[in-house]
Amino acid sequence: MLFPCADFPSLTGIHYLNTAAESIPPACVNDAVSEYMAHKALGMRGRDFHFPRVEACREITARHLGLAPEEVGFCSCSSEAYNLLASALQLHARDEVIVTDLDFPAGATPWLTAAEKPVTRLWRHRGGALLLDDLAPLLNERTALVQVSLVSFYNGHRVAFAPLRDLVRRLAPDAVLSVDVTQALGRVPLDCQDADILISSTHKWTLGIHGGGIVGVPKKSAARLTTKAGGWYHIANAFDSDRFETARVKTGAASFSVGMPSFAALYALNASLRYLDQFGLPAIAAHADPLIARLHAGLRDLGIQTLAPEQSETPSGIVAFTHPDTRAIHDVLLAQNIHVMHQVGRIRIAVHGYNTPEDIDCLLAALPRP
Questions:
Q1: 342 CB contacts (<8 Å, ≥6 apart)?
Q2: Could you tell me the CA-to-CA distances from 339 to 100, 102, 287, 293, 330 in Å, in that order?
Q3: What's the first-to-final CA gap in the chain, in angstroms?
């Protein structure tokens, strides 16, 4: 276990392999939320603490994203971020959007519910992997957006970003390249700073809590990716004399913070990312990636085929497989205090810095052969 046991008292006696759904926050996050409540109890004076904490969170978040602090904004969740992205793009029926069938609904559905729906093209996986040969025919001069997840929530497939970026820039030079890093941030080193926008939730591998959304917009894309939403926190003249005549929206990432910050979530995120910073992503990967390899090997020995091929050079934290009776498997595992994600037909396993070889071995010992 890379992270000290004392920081995660709720893990005593259980094998928790479900971080891709809900992480277990370290004790310092509990302390940070308690600190927020103490500051909130001060009433208006509490804001003297709230806003500096937001800026501290912006700084550490930018460091983890590989961006500058002014290129980072916050909202309430990744779903809100994608809807605000839609408001920035103002797509029309002639525009085309590419999404993948390994993406989370938050990044795929805003284009399907728009008042004027763009053409949505689906980049389908083959054998659990997204192949550039299948993307190339979908790209053209009408492509306005390419939306991908760096790591798929569904099966853990990790996109090779640099070749993807190069292909999109060559065949669809005007397209916005959007990357969901929810299943990567805090677990694997990011290599996608050349995307036009990065989006993440705060309650998974970052070890934070619900109520936060992270948006990274590099300066080169700020003017293009400025939301058209109303609000006040992202309005430069919100209380000026001309506020009822015009709304001057802050550009880029700042435009995604349309209302009062979710202070509790940002206190928590500030604490959790600084906690992860003590170890560093290379150390987290060096600890957890061998456990992923151990898991793949054990599943092969059991005759269980994973939903994505093993990526030994660039692993993620997620492994998933199907089984004829996933409900029964889930119940058997839970009876032995082994926590995984169960959805109809699919078991998903997630490995982070608080997991151990024993967690993997207990899981493998409890799994039946198909």
A1: 326, 327, 329, 330, 348
A2: 28, 23, 20, 19, 8
A3: 30
CA 343 and chain centroid, separation:
19
pTM above 0.85, yes or no: yes
Chain segment 240-288, per-residue pLDDT in tens: 999 999 999 999 999 999 999 999 999 999 999 999 999 999 999 999 9
* 71 within 8 A of 252, measured Cβ to Cβ: yes
Q: What is the CATH number of domain 29-277?
A: 3.40.640.10
DSSP string, 56-121: HHHHHHHHHHTS-GGGEEEES-HHHHHHHHHHHH---TT-EEEEETTS-HHHHSTTTS-SSPPEEE
Fold entry, domain 5-24+281-366: Aspartate Aminotransferase, domain 1 (3.90.1150)
- Label residue 351 by pLDDT band (50, 70, 90): very high
Average pLDDT over residues 299-304: 96
Nearest alpha carbon to residue 272 among 30, 2, 12, 10: 30
Instruction: Give residue limits of the domains in the chain.
Output: 5-24+281-366, 29-277
Residue with tokens 């939903």: 307
Q: What is the pLDDT of residue 105?
A: 96
**Res 213: pLDDT:** 98
User: Average model confidence (pLDDT) for the chain?
Assistant: 97
- Average of per-residue pLDDT across 164-187: 98
Helices and strands (H and E) in the chain: how many: 11, 12
Confidence at residue 370, expressed as pLDDT on a 0 to 100 scale: 78
d(Cα 161, Cα 194) in Å, to the nearest integer? 9
Nearest CA-CA partner of 339 in 308, 304, 366: 366
Q: Residues of 255-267 as b/e, b for ≥16 C-beta within 10 angstroms?
A: bbbbeebbbbbbb
